[in-house]
Design a protein that fits this description.
Blueprint: H1 3-12, H2 23-32, H3 38-60, H4 73-108
């Protein structure tokens, strides 16, 4: 039962894969932009932020003041905040692309 906690703790710290699994969150946030829906991309960013912070709190037991930043609450809150902002930015990009598509389609329609 404790093996999965150690594995996740290694993925969240420098010891495991150099933080590459956390970059998968950005991949899903970018992919949610393809639906051109503001709410979906914002929700994806919020879920990624909450999930990353929850995983860090359960497996690493972070504290406010520590010598190692991997065990700091502020560090993991910052990482989660970056994911949330990435979701909001991706959603605004999706809305912008959607409005450009709608204007292009309206301009291409023949006037009746």
């Amino acid at each position: 039962m404790r093996h999965w906690r150690r594995w996740i703790a290694e993925l969240l710290t420098n010891a495991g894969c150099d933080r590459r699994p956390a970059l998968l969150y950005f991949l899903f946030i970018i992919l949610s932009t393809l639906r051109l829906d503001f709410a979906l991309s914002a929700f994806t960013g919020a879920v990624a932020a909450v999930e990353l912070f929850a995983l860090a709190s359960v497996t690493l037991h972070p504290v406010w003041r520590t010598d190692d930043p991997n065990f700091s609450i502020a560090y993991h809150l910052t990482r989660s905040g970056v994911l949330l902002v990435a979701g909001l930015l991706a959603s605004s990009v999706g809305v912008t692309i959607k409005s450009h598509f709608e204007r292009a389609l309206a301009a291409a329609r023949p006037a009746t």
